[in-house]
Amino acid sequence: MKSIGMALGGGGLRGMAHIGVLQVMQENGLKPQYISGTSAGSIIAALYASGISPYQMQSIAMKLSPSDFIDYNLIGTFKYLLSFLCPFYEAPLEGIILGDKLEKMIYELTEGKRLAEVNMPLAIIACDINSGRKIIFTNQDVEIERGDVLVVQDALISEAVRCSVSIPVTFIPKDFAGLKVVDGGLKEIVPASIAKIMGADYILSVNLGQEMYDSQVKGIPQIISRTLSILIYETSEMEEEIYSDMTIYPGVQGTSLNDTAAIAKIIRAGRRAMRENIEELKRQL
After folding, report:
1. Rounded to whole angstroms, how far apart are CA atoms 231 and 161?
2. Which of 69, 148, 246, 266 could bond to 16 as cystine, CB 3.0-4.6 Å?
């Protein structure tokens, strides 16, 4: 049987669909030997590589409330508004969510492990917003001869995840090793290429972007979010087509980060999408 590399795409809270996909695979005796993730996908990839089963992930997810992982940048926002009143006072606003709570949660769930302390081949994608370079956090010795790619092997798993989930405008960028790092979706929303580079024979990708344009946008925040989504999913489509042997589309509708009541429904969507493709996956493997 071919070795499986899973590429888990980004998509905010819709990333919970990855849990359902992994559950159905486990129920059918299939286990990825390599795993990569971008943004929300990086969370599930990091937890899975750290030894947390998809059923344990569901148990953790079902207990979450927005206050567990969302910490609003209240002081930064106040300073930004104050700068309008004081012409000589500069206080740029880089994001509305600090990201400290999310990073701490991942640190605790992964028991403070560094990349090198995880045995399963793992890759997490992020982006240096200053230079535009793609950053690959990994525990593997990969050779990528491109000047626009930086490979990082020495970092906490929680740091790598925090970098990868930093949705521009929403999260404050993560300062890491002198870099200002944001969501990896700007470079590769479904990280299929690195799964192939790490050595997987067969790449199974999970793309959370399908059917995301069904609702009309209203207001500046939604317009910004939709603009980023269109740019991100369409610019990375070619790499996914080249490297993925099969792509799963859970087809989850857009969900806000604080809508934890939708988690169970999102996990079921992942299960449903994987069940519809499981027999074909077995045949191809």
Report:
1. 22
2. 266
Contact between 69 and 102 (Cβ < 8 Å): yes
Predicted pLDDT of residue 112: 97
For residue range 186-243, what is the model confidence (pLDDT) as tens digits? 899 999 999 999 999 999 999 987 555 556 777 766 676 667 667 666 666 777 888 9
Q: What is the mean pLDDT of residues 110-126?
A: 97
Residue length of the chain: 285
Rounded CA-CA distance 162/152 in Å is: 14
Please give the Cα distance from 152 to 139 (Å, whole number). 8
Give the pTM. Answer: 0.92
- Cβ-count burial 113-127 (b if 16+ within 10 Å, e if not): bbbeebeebbbbbbb
CA angle 31, 229, 131 (to 5 degrees): 90
To which residue do tokens 């070619």 refer?
238
* Token pair in block for residue 174: 């993560």
Residue 109: how many other CB atoms lie within 10 Å: 20
Q: Cβ(42)–Cβ(184) under 8 Å?
A: yes
CB atoms inside a 10 Å sphere around CB 234: 11
Q: What type of residue sits at position 132?
A: G
CA distance 258 to 254: 12
| Longest Cα–Cα distance in the chain | 66
Alpha helical stretches, state H, the chain: 17-27, 40-49, 54-62, 66-69, 74-85, 100-109, 157-164, 192-198, 219-235, 237-243, 263-284
Can you read off the two tokens belonging to residue 234? 């369409």
CA distances from 7 to 90, 200, 213 (A): 41, 11, 23
At residue 172, φ and ψ (nearest 5 deg) are -65, 135
Q: How far is CA 128 from CA 11, 165, 210, in A?
A: 19, 13, 26
